[in-house]
Amino acid sequence: MTEYMTDIDAFATAVQSQWANQRIHEQRDHFSFPGRIAEFKAALVAHPPVNEQEFYARVNNVLLSFHDGHFYGIFPKAKYLQNTSGMRFQFSEQGLLLTECARGCEQVSLPVRVIRVDGMETESWLVQKAPLYSGSTDAGRREHLVRHLEQDDRMAPAISSASIEPLVTKITVKGILGVEQDLVVPWQNAGPSPVTEPQCISSQLKDQALIVRVRTFYCGNFNESPATHLARFNNQLTRVLSSEIPFSSLIIDVRGNSGGMLDEAQALVSHFISTPLFWYASKLRSASPGQLPEVLKIQPSASPFANEKRYSQAPLWVLMDGGCFSQCAIFAQALQDSGRAQLVGTEFDAGAGGGSSLAWTAPSGQWSANIPAWEVYRKDGQLLEASTVKLDLKTLPSRSDFYAFGDPTLLNA
């Protein structure tokens, strides 16, 4: 127990040294950091963890509840789980919809409305669970909660404990004919490295619009080097783009993209602009060394299609939702501020204030954490937060829109 308390006290000191105002910076984040730590320590005393696995799981729950979204823990002895069904969800006027499922949903006609999660009404589940997840808006927190349902990267505890948030195991859906069906949410251990190459980018041509779907700017996992990530991202990007494609407009779909690496986001942008654009400026939270500008380092000539005017001049839209976070938010805002793209979607979670972070290791040497240390600014000097972001077209589709059009947000673009 002494070792656990020493680790938590050291973690609290490290966080407070990076946060001049000693509070999580996003708007509408109402809890106190010192109070949160005190509550965590009291729970350790009242209900001591029976092993390291449970302690790690508790710490991970605390990190998830920091709404900056860039806090995360690294637990070398932990096991992580993945949802193997291929489930994907979208929000609509009627609530949460299951829109994709690769395995275990063969008897369901998609899309269907999710009416219960582990027996709890979906709206109640969202209200109760979303505040535990990161995000600078309520919509962003809901999006991140749902993304964790699709692929949960937090640690699965070895034992059952009331202090640990359990994994979802079942959802109940209702189709257009009113029939209810229960679907199992299958989890399995995630390996230390991808078994197959992650599919980070895909594309399709629809009505002369080239739609580029970018699922992440972190094209790999934590065991691989940034250079490996970038090489994979660029290879996939080159494959989906072609001088043969007869498009007249461009759509970049970053819905549910929780961010990732700066170089990957800039590699994508480099294909679609003719001149470098302002990316962001950053400043340390705990000091004021002045603004440190970060501009586009990859020139447009890096694109094999740089000489094709249609890539840099064709009308460009970016599809957003509350799951676009961190580097994704910076990417979209840079394109909008430069005048190159218009933003279309349901919500924008501009939780971008990670920048470079402090890599901290617990005194025990058994776990570590990433602590955000920077604030991110737009070209006009405004802090990149949800209040400063304006979608060019905001849309919240209905369930009937999904049935009729398949992807109504895409249709609006």
Could you outline the blueprint of secondary structure elements for this entry?
Layout: H1 2-18, H2 33-46, H3 52-64, E1 72-74, E2 81-83, E3 88-92, E4 95-100, E5 112-117, E6 120-121, H4 122-129, H5 138-150, E7 170-174, E8 180-184, E9 187-189, E10 201-206, E11 209-214, H6 226-240, E12 249-253, H7 262-269, E13 278-284, E14 292-295, H8 309-313, E15 316-320, H9 327-337, E16 342-345, E17 357-361, E18 368-372, E19 374-377, E20 393-394, H10 399-405, H11 408-412
Parallel strand pairs: 11-12, 12-15, 15-16, 16-20
Antiparallel strand pairs: 1-18, 2-9, 3-4, 4-5, 5-6, 5-7, 7-8, 10-11, 13-14, 13-19, 17-18
Helix pairs in contact: 1-2, 6-7, 7-9
Structure description:
This protein is of the alpha+beta class. 28% of the residues lie in helices and 22% in strands. It is built from eleven helices and 20 strands. It has helices at 2-18, 33-46, 52-64, 122-129, 138-150, 226-240, 262-269, 309-313, 327-337, 399-405, 408-412, and strands at residues 72-74, 81-83, 88-92, 95-100, 112-117, 120-121, 170-174, 180-184, 187-189, 201-206, 209-214, 249-253, 278-284, 292-295, 316-320, 342-345, 357-361, 368-372, 374-377, 393-394. Strands 3, 4, 5, 6, 7 and 8 form a six-stranded antiparallel beta sheet that branches. The protein has a six-stranded mixed beta sheet with strand order 10-11-12-15-16-20. Strand 5 and strand 6 (120-121) form a beta hairpin. Helix 1 (2-18) runs antiparallel to helix 2 and helix 7 (262-269) runs parallel beside helix 9. The N and C termini lie far apart (55 Å). The relative contact order is 0.14. Mean pLDDT is 77; it is low at 21-30, 157-163 and 397-406.
